[in-house]
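Lab meeting minutes (informal)
Scribe: AK
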Amino acid sequence: MPHTDRASLWSAAGAAGRLSERALLGAEASVTLNELVRGSSLGGRLEELRGRSVLVATRDQLTAALALIELDAVASRLVLCPPDLPVTHLPWVMATAGVDALVSDRAAPGPGTPGVRTFVTCTPRIAPVGPERNGERPTEWILLTSGTTGQPKMVVHTLSSLAGAISGGGTPANAAVWSTFYDIRRYGGLQIFLRALLGGGSMVLSSAEESTADFLIRAGARGVTHISGTPSHWRRALMSPFAHRIAPRYVRLSGEIADQAILDHLRAFFPKAGVAHAFASTEAGVAFDVGDGFAGFPAGLIGQQNADVEMKVEDGSLRIRSARTATRYLGDEDGPLVDRDGFVDTGDMVERRADRYHFVGRRGGIINVGGSKVHPEEVEAVINGHPHVRMSLVRTRKNPITGALVVADVVLTEELEAANGRVAELEHEIMQRCRETLSRHKVPAAIRFVSALAVTPSGKLVRHDA
């Protein structure tokens, strides 16, 4: 299936029109696309980066966004460096990607980037210079996976594969102001960035330096209409007293399993918004989104022939083939990205219940309790369904008899101090709910009430054994 033809990010964004009314809005500065028509964020040094393999390693999302717009179809390769990438991984990333130029918002190359031949500073202060941007060459976009241990995988995309699920054509009547809790240098955030640009809208960029409350206040002040995040992002947002500052028309979830509880909470909190959850991965691309209000996805999506996205379930794992799939991994040690039939094995496990498939967890995240398998996410979905639970984390605790026990950390919708008098009652209710719904070996052996749960920089729950 051919990729959608898009000459460059800049030309595609321009084709969506109204450049003077569209902006990228950062925490400290903002830039309209019309300003980029007249100038450059790279100080007039774009020509020095033509045909180069460029590492985009900025602290600020706004400067990263500006660099990506200017460099697509100019650089031969764009390597998106997320801000949480350990410095120890940088030399490997640069060597594997053949990086010979660095774009940063710093005054000089940072640690871990020795021997950079060309260093260009990117700034939101647009200089009135710059050559005409044209789509001379296809640019490879290199995204790093967000694995919790070891070196990340480097996934090769094109603008066409990245934008395959996006249809442009925003108009003044319905132009969106997008935002996301994600960083745009991860796949989920990049999708929202591209949706804003190619759909004719603006985008409010988040900042790692601001709290959830400050971000919600700023997003509300900027009139955000479309906003995306992981279920964990949204659970934390709904715990904030400033969640009411935003009044979106569209709420999107991705990156983690969207259970029925979070979908119901969002629909109740934003009754005028459409709520959808999407499935995508860095390797497979965007597979589908579901806007019917229910967890999981219709069984009819599996096995469709000659569809834009073809899906199948094999050994319980969802597999995907489409023009949105990445080209390959960069580095032979990572092995093939697709199987011999062109499908990506996502490693996300699903099971069919009546006319719907439900996600139950990651293949590598199974807890083994006395030889029986437990997907933590399946147990969390049951716990999160309790009306007084905001979010939960199910993990394993070592046990000399079974090898492991299932335990749960639970965040309540109300202040823990206020609920202290009801802790025993709430624990009993949650445990009873689990016993009625889950097999015996999946029921938590213990519940611990906590005030918060750790979330990774990519917006997912931090999972670890104890």
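Next up, CB showed the second protein from the same session:
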Amino acid sequence: MTNPKVQTISINGMRHYKHPNIKGLSAPSVTSIVGMLPAPYLPKWNSKITAEAAINEIDEINDMIANQGKTKAIEWLKSAAERELNKAADTGTRVHEAIEQIILDPSYKYDDDLIPYINGFHAFVERFEPEWLHVEKSVFSVTHVYAGSLDAICKINNKNILLDFKTTRSGISAKVALQLAAYKNADVLFDGDEEIPMPKIDAGAALLLRPDKWAYQPLRIDDDIFATFLALRRTLEWEFRQSKTAMLAPVPHKGLLK
């Protein structure tokens, strides 16, 4: 994701957006809320990345042990998955930024290593001929207290499509439908300094851009999907507020009951 257009802060380690025009109002990001869903595949993926690092970098690890000790090598291996995620996130951010600039200026020059990704984007444009209405805009729901940054709204076949760009190796997750349903139901969109009502959205889709392929995936973003997102919003509320106050003062007693 590129840098959002509305100021953000970190609360409880999660991104929150500060409403530009309502003093004191901040809201958790859509991605933080969707992140409340369990991810059972992550432990296995983390183990796989750590094992691959141990094998592929064995000489570096041995040098690290010899010069800095086992503790340093262990810490380096433990952070292997995080390094992989950061690398992927950096590529995704650069692709997003390049696409944003290309939409604004087709002659924009981007880094050569992004060419395979951007070729997929150009193939999508040639195939679907989108009319770009909004690109990289922040949205806010005062009604349900959440916010986020959408990638694009475009018109395809006279329908307003909420479009999300994805570069992940694992492909498009069904969770993206939750993300787009939240954007669709936001109250307002910020276009520069202007706050405007969220445009009518007819459908949602994700555009997968990988070095060797691209894919356009329609997604269901109806009221049923949005209701699930709101349930996750309540789950986040439990995790970071209600759970802290759910246990009341213990009842005093003398000794153990017999």
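CB comment: The chain has eight helices and ten strands.
No objections, moving on.
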